[in-house]
Amino acid sequence: MRSIWKGAISFGLVTIPVKLYSATEQKDVAFHQVHREDGGRIKYKRVCSVDGEEVPYSDIAKGYELATGEMVVLTDEDFSDLPLTTSRRIDVLQFTPAEQIDPIYFAKSYYLEPDGQGAKPYVLLRDALERSGQVAVVKIALRQRESLAALRVRDGVFVLETMLWPDEIREADFGFLEEDVDVRPQELKMAESLIETMVADFDPTEYKDAYREALQEVIEAKVAGKELVAPEVPAEAGPAVDLMAALRASVEAAKRERQGATEAKAPGRAAKAKAAASSGSAARKAASDGADEEEKAPKKRKTRRSA
Q: pLDDT tens, 205-226?
């Protein structure tokens, strides 16, 4: 990883120098727009809509369009006069329980690494924050924008989660919220049963981006000049006609899937159990045969005495 920002956490009178790194990365397959006939890259020119002339990048400014269609042009001087702090500080504003921050506010995650002689105060604040069970609400100026953020601990490292401002969160204004939707107790109980059947510890390594993998295979096949075989796509289920029947079927399917996953994870255990069961059956059969022989044997001896 490469550091994209240097600054300091300002915590009371304590200053902790840190480096900022992007904590996540997108794994999308990158494409270019090309000419279908010869594969040539498509280039775009910056052309003015008024005079039709190509405009060099040095002559391009930012413009804000009014409702009337008029354009307000802003210069670098206009931006320099804005009250955006130029100090490279992460100001701790307060500490709050993590559950009070709705995850919808989180925008992007960054790692913070101690810089220079900042290791000791970094570890001190990290351990104190982790023991308190709180997260720090901070403010940071990043990429020409002031952001609210949350500072938390993950795997021994500070994670800075930049946050959206309250007026950037859209209200969920949907008509069905005002409707009186009747849900029967039996349906609710069956839905809860389905949830209980599907409860499991979250392990992100169990999931993969099947579309990206398939797309990569298509690209590799084209490079190798191989024939492409389209994978089978499972048929999508239609809308449920009988909700109770659909829930009941879902519960049964979830149980079967979980049972199959359990058996797949422990084939040795299943084999041992099967072997033990077979051994037990054989032992019982042998014991039964022995008992039959013992029962027959005295009769034969008795017959010989009579003779």
A: 898 988 888 888 888 888 888 6
- Higher per-residue confidence, 257 vs 247: 257
**Tokens found for residue 178:** 């005002």
Do the Cβ atoms of 30 and 219 come closer than 8 Å?
A: no
Map residue 44 onto helix, strand or coil: coil
Nearest to 18 by CA among 183, 173, 166, 160: 160
Q: How is residue 11 written in tokens?
A: 């915590």
Three-state secondary-structure class, residue 13: coil
Angle (CA) 165 171 176, round 5°? 165
Instruction: List C-alpha distances in Å: 1 to 24, 111, 112, 256.
Output: 10, 10, 12, 43
pLDDT of residue 297: 46
The rounded distance, in Å, linking the Cα atoms of 274 and 279 is 8
Neighbours of 23 (CB within 10 A): 16
The rounded Cα 149 to chain-centroid distance in angstroms is 20
In angstroms, how far is CA 220 from the centroid of its own chain? 27
Mean pLDDT in the chain? 82
pLDDT, average across residues 49-60: 92
The beta-strand segments (E) located in the chain are: 5-11, 14-22, 62-65, 71-74, 89-97, 106-114, 134-141, 146-154, 157-163
- Asked whether the beta carbons of 109 and 24 are under 8 A apart, the reply is yes
Beta strand segments in 32-156, E: 62-65, 71-74, 89-97, 106-114, 134-141, 146-154
- pTM of the complete model: 0.68
C-alpha 115/C-alpha 112 separation (Å) is 9
Measuring CA to CA, how many Å separate 266 from each of 255, 270, 299?
17, 6, 50
